[in-house]
Each structure stands twice: as structure tokens, then as C-alpha cells.
Specification:
Blueprint: E1 4-7, H1 14-31, E2 36-40, H2 46-54, E3 61-62, E4 70-74, E5 90-96, E6 109-112, H3 118-128, H4 135-148, H5 159-172, H6 177-189, H7 196-201, E7 204-209, E8 212-221, H8 231-245, E9 249-256, E10 261-268, H9 271-278, E11 286-290, H10 295-307
Parallel strand pairs: 1-2, 1-4, 2-3, 4-5, 5-6, 8-9
Antiparallel strand pairs: 7-8, 9-10, 10-11
Length: about 300
């Protein structure tokens, strides 16, 4: 049997990488095989490397093209966010927690839940199938859920996620998931050795709206002030992306996970309409909005309402 590659989105975040690893492992166990191979769609970010190294879980290899391959997409379903070659891949399954934006010529298995993390869905599948989650795997899955739900504070976090986070904390022998979450966000907040591009691209998604291509990056941090001296350079780099990669707008929002709000840096071919989408005015391409923590539930919908009518 040929391999089936389990892969998350481009600009891989912790949830997409750990979802690929843990879901491939679950499928292999259930079907008593080893054909499911976790792979990644790009360079792993800082906290992903930190967590996998710390808990001795191998970082999957990068797969540069999906063309001609059998694949399971985890943590995404929009082609704009999928690895190159997706149009020529055989998609066998999707497991995700984002809105469905997917058309396909064959009937396939689609598992989508409106939960806070792909790893939450996978945890529940381990439980349903009575497959034991090994401690190191449980710790990585817990870490992914804490990042995606911003330590349960994100509006995307559901009661089920909280139940599953508590359950995995037990398996992982983590006494305080809040402390564990803060440990990971501290790793994220150290940006001193990251280039401007690495900061922008560390969690970056493309959206193909009717009025153009939008790139929306997010950084969740425990310390907004470390970004302040770099905002000008970040905006310059984003401006360059607009010119070179034909974006309508490139937006980076820096989420203060303690205060529960986000500082937006905006470069756009039509700033006035971005202001309309966000419902407030920019000052020198910058803006703080209280209460905004989620791209999926709050930011992307604002842009799609304005630019994807
Ligand atoms: Mg993700
Ligand atoms: Mg996710
Ligand atoms: Mg996220």
C-alpha cells in the first residue's frame, strides 16, 4: 500500500504539526499499519521546535509538493492554505476546526468540529477508539490546544476543549495547564533572534477574497512591548510583500494574551476600506482593538464581510 501523508497548513503552527503527528499515529494504530506518515508544509515555528524537542517527539519531514500523493489534510481545508501541488493530490480525508471551504470530486471522510484546536478533535478520537495516548504525545497535544485556545481564553475555546485540556493534563501529568501554557507563550514572546519576515510569517494565512488576496498574520504574546521598536520595520516588510506577491492587504495583529486585545499593523492597497472592515481608524497604519483575540472567529470574518461580498 502506498503511503498516506498527513499534513497541516503552510506556515505550520503547533496545532497543525502535532495534529499531523498524532492523527497519523492514531490511524496507524487503529488500522494496524504504518502507511500514515506525518509531514509538514514548511519550516516549523519556534514553539513547535521547543515543544517537540523538549518531549522527544520527532519533527516530521517537510513535503514540498503534494502532487500525485495521497493526503489527509489536518487543521485546514482551504486550498489557499494548503501545500503546493494540492490540486493534483488525492485527498482521502479532512480533519479540521475551521470553516469549510472545500469542493471535491469524490466522496471523502470529513471530520470538522467547531472546537478550539484540531488536537481536541484528535484527542476525542483517541478516546472514542480506546487508543491510549502516550505521555509525551499527550503533552504535545495539550501544548497545541493551549496555544490554539490561548490558554482557554480565546473566544474559539469551547467547554469541550476545556474538558479535553483537563483530561490531557492528567495523562501528561501537568499540574497546572495555565502555567504550562504561559511557559509556551513565553517562548513565543522571545523574538530577539527572529527576522521581521519570520515574525510576520510565523502564523500567517492567505485568504482569496473576491476583491483580492489577503495575508493575515497573528502573533500571540505575553509582552506586546517587545514588538514596539520593530513595528516600523515590520510594516516595511509587509509593504514589500504587497508589491512582490500581489496582495490586496497584508495585516499583522499582535495579540496581548494577558490584556485580551490586539494591536494591528496594516498595509493595504485600500486603507480606507480596511478601516471600514475593522470598524475603527488607523493611526500611522496601526490600531489597537480591545477584545480581539481570534483570526478565525473575529478578524477573518470582518475582512470577508467587506472584501468577499
Ligand atoms: Mg493552525
Ligand atoms: Mg488549529
Ligand atoms: Mg492560532
Amino acid at each position: 500500500m502506498s503511503n498516506i501523508y498527513v499534513i497541516g497548513h503552510k506556515s505550520p503552527d503547533l496545532d497543525s504539526v502535532v495534529a499531523a503527528i498524532s492523527y497519523a499515529n492514531l490511524k496507524n494504530k487503529i488500522e494496524n499499519t504504518d502507511i500514515y506518515k506525518p509531514v509538514i508544509a514548511g519550516e516549523a515555528n519556534k514553539e513547535t521546535k521547543y515543544i517537540l524537542e523538549k518531549y522527544n517527539v520527532a519533527l516530521p519531514e517537510k513535503l514540498d509538493s503534494l502532487a500525485g500523493k495521497k493526503v489527509i489534510l489536518v487543521d485546514h481545508n482551504e486550498f489557499a492554505q494548503a501545500q503546493e501541488g494540492i490540486e493534483d493530490a488525492e485527498i482521502v480525508e479532512i480533519l479540521d476546526h475551521h470553516k469549510l471551504d472545500f469542493k471535491y470530486s469524490n466522496p471523502i471522510e470529513v471530520i470538522i468540529k467547531p472546537w478550539g484546536a484540531s488536537c481536541s478533535i484528535i484527542t476525542s478520537l483517541y478516546m472514542q477508539n480506546l487508543v491510549e495516548i502516550e505521555k509525551s504525545m499527550a503533552t504535545c497535544m495539550l501544548a497545541a490546544m493551549l496555544v490554539d485556545t490561548v490558554i482557554t481564553k480565546s473566544p474559539t475555546c469551547t467547554d469541550i476543549d476545556i474538558e479535553l485540556i483537563k483530561h490531557l493534563s492528567g495523562v501528561a501529568e501537568v499540574s497546572s495547564f495555565e502555567d504550562f501554557g504561559m511557559e509556551i507563550f513565553k517562548v513565543r514572546s522571545d523574538i530577539s533572534d527572529l527576522s521581521d519576515e519570520e515574525i510576520i510569517k510565523s502564523d500567517f494565512k492567505d485568504f482569496n477574497f473576491k476583491d483580492g488576496k489577503f495575508g493575515i498574520g497573528q502573533v500571540e504574546t505575553a509582552d506586546l512591548s517587545v514588538f514596539e521598536p520593530r513595528e516600523g520595520a515590520l510594516l516595511e516588510k509587509m509593504e514589500e510583500m504587497i508589491e512582490q506577491e500581489a496582495y490586496h492587504s497584508v495585516v499583522l495583529f499582535l495579540t496581548d494574551i494577558i490584556k485580551g486585545g490586539s494591536r494591528f499593523l496594516v498595509t493595504s492597497t485600500d486603507e480606507a476600506r480596511v478601516e471600514k472592515a475593522l470598524g475603527s481608524s488607523l493611526e500611522n497604519k496601526r490600531l489597537y482593538i480591545d477584545g480581539i483575540m481570534s483570526r478565525k472567529k473575529q478578524v477573518a470574518p470582518k475582512f470577508s464581510e467587506e472584501f468577499d461580498k
